[in-house]
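This is your field. Have a critical look at both lines of this record:
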Amino acid sequence: MSFFKKIFTKEKKETLDKGLEKTKTSFFDKMSKAVAGKSKVDDDVLDNLEEVLVTSDVGVKTTLKVITRIEERVARDKYVGTDELNKILREEIAGLLSETNVGNATDFEIPSGTKPHVIMVVGVNGVGKTTTIGKLAYQFKKQGLKVVLGAGDTFRAAAIDQLQVWADRVDVPIVKQSMGSDPASVAFDALESGVTRGADVIIIDTAGRLHNKVNLMNELTKVKRVMQKVIGDAPHDVLLVLDGSTGQNAFEQAKQFTAATEVTSLAVTKLDGTAKGGVVIGISDQFQIPVKYIGVGEGIEDLQVFNKIEFVDSFFK
């Protein structure tokens, strides 16, 4: 039995395999063309492989790292056949992800010693932010944890309503105010409510407008400062949600938000509907921030903890 099978259920594995199907099919179609008519990994094959990785949204910097690793391996081994390329590529990408020290978790968990554990969720509109919050609440509750939601995106009535739908679906309490209210005030009330209720986890939504960095920074800084009036070291996690189907645009959003606030973890959503799943590899490598969760389907169970062993196994299966 493989290490992977020991720590992940068959259902989770099948969901991930299915979620990455479009990415995998696109990638290996390109790979087969890159090595067509070649028996040996030479400069032409490496040039073609570089194009495959870049067009699969792995990102230029990460692609160059991977190509350099394979060049070194080819030079060391003297002869590497194209039939070995998939195996080598898999090993080098797994090695690259291992160096980032991310993606080791096997289940939804929160650090011990921070109760309540406060998660502030950021990201632009449309990336699946509210859905991710709802699915997180479901997973934490399934672990037996008490969860409270805070509807801090007060600039859109739809955002408050959508979070209320998720709160009802998961059966967890929600703290909200009317549209146009001060987001920091909502966060303050949510933390007070969470403390009173003995919550284990408090998840705070925030506005999804990607306005200029100064305003964004000021707004998020204010929310954090007000939170700290209730819980001194809150938030314990600033989770940035990115839409994997946007490919390189997800990199740009990550740059914008990491410049505006101290992001501590990432969630990459909508991987099931796209061939751009390679973006997870690039984002894991380029940002010194762990990818904590990935979305591989629309179902409530289809938000998964990101595990590099699991991901690489499904990507190259």
Observations:
- The chain has two domains: 8-99, 117-307.
